[in-house]
Amino acid sequence: xxxxxxxxxxxxxxxxxxxxxxxxxxxxxxxxxxxxxxxxxxxxxxxxxxxxxxxxxxxxxxxxxxxxxxxxxxxxxxxxxxxxxxxxxxxxxxxxxxxxxxxxxxxxxxxxxx
Length: 114
What we know:
With 114 residues, this protein is an alpha+beta fold. The protein has a domain at 38-112: Translation Initiation Factor Eif1 (2-Layer Sandwich). The protein has two helices and five strands, in the order ββαββαβ. The chain has helices at 69-80, 98-108; strands at 42-50, 54-60, 84-87, 90-94, 111-112. The longest helix is centred in the middle third of the chain and has 12 residues, at 69-80.
């Protein structure tokens, strides 16, 4: 994809914020949190009943910095075919999907705590 003003006097190539070099020539390490492999983390899964007798599957016990929770949420939502959200470092999925979530977490590599 080309830049908006490519080939005009207003064309300013993007530069790195840290070193000032062109982005193509930048040698800086990418910033980001250190990710811990799934095999070293254990997740806890339970189902809760919320108001109006709605069932919710909750996954907790994962470190929000060491684990990519938004990516994990989208994988679990796709596996269960339901909606869900992140609430205070917990993943909440609509419906009672405990066994399906446990299977998917094991397939990814997480340990399941009792």
